[in-house]
UniProtKB/TrEMBL annotation:
InterPro entries: Flavodoxin/NO_synth (IPR008254), Flavoprotein-like_sf (IPR029039). Residues 5-159 form the Flavodoxin-like domain. This is Flavodoxin. It holds the Pfam family Flavodoxin_4. Gene3D superfamilies: 3.40.50.360. It comes from the Bacteria. One of its GO terms (molecular function) is FMN binding.
Length: 159
């Protein structure tokens, strides 16, 4: 029997959302958005402003922005977790999600979009937020990645 796959993603400005939608099609997966209780405004994601919300969250590793709703991962074997790279790591709200769930018996594969960075896309930095999961190293995906390339990637993961 095939694995039951869920694609989850956080996206502040839509790039990761568009990639996640293509990935879900390629993987034959369901899709769920990681939605922060308080949405990120343009001012919140101003990385040039050291006092912006994203900058402050980055400076404080322990911050865990609340979720608008939980995501039920129990029916799934494999969960893709997608996010934009913020300073070469995942936004803190992704950790809120990871730390809210029971990952025993589940496989996590990350994917990330970015301006150009690759570091942080493999998900290694996040392992401590879901130590019970079986982690497969993820990758950066270009904003315009084609479904055929995603097909190949998913097939190569040997899930
Ligand atoms: C706060 C912040 C920090 C970022 N840091 C990086 C970075 O370190 N490297 C990079 O290549 N892009 C960086 N970016 C660009 C985003 O990763 C990129 O625009 C991403 O595709 C946005 O995804 P989204 O539209 O799903 O939110 C940053 C963007 C923001 C808002």
């Amino acid at each position: 029997m095939g694995k039951r796959i869920l694609v989850t993603y956080f996206s502040a400005t839509g790039t990761t959302r568009a990639v996640a939608e293509r990935l879900a099609k390629a993987a034959g997966a369901d899709i769920e958005e990681i939605v922060p209780a308080e949405p990120y405004t343009a001012a919140d994601v101003d990385w040039r402003d050291p006092n912006s919300r994203s900058s402050v969250e980055h400076q404080h590793r322990e911050m865990r922005p609340e979720l608008a709703h939980s995501i039920d991962i129990t029916p799934y074997d494999v969960v893709f977790v997608g996010y934009p790279l913020w300073w070469e790591t995942a936004p803190r709200v992704v950790r809120t999600f990871l730390e809210s769930e029971d990952w025993s018996g589940k496989t996590i594969v990350t994917f990330a979009t970015s301006g150009s960075s690759i570091r942080g896309a493999d998900g290694v930095q996040l392992h401590d937020s879901a130590p019970a999961a079986h982690w497969i190293a993820g990758r950066r995906l270009a904003a315009n990645v084609k479904e055929s390339e995603l097909d190949k990637w998913v097939a190569g993961l040997d899930l």
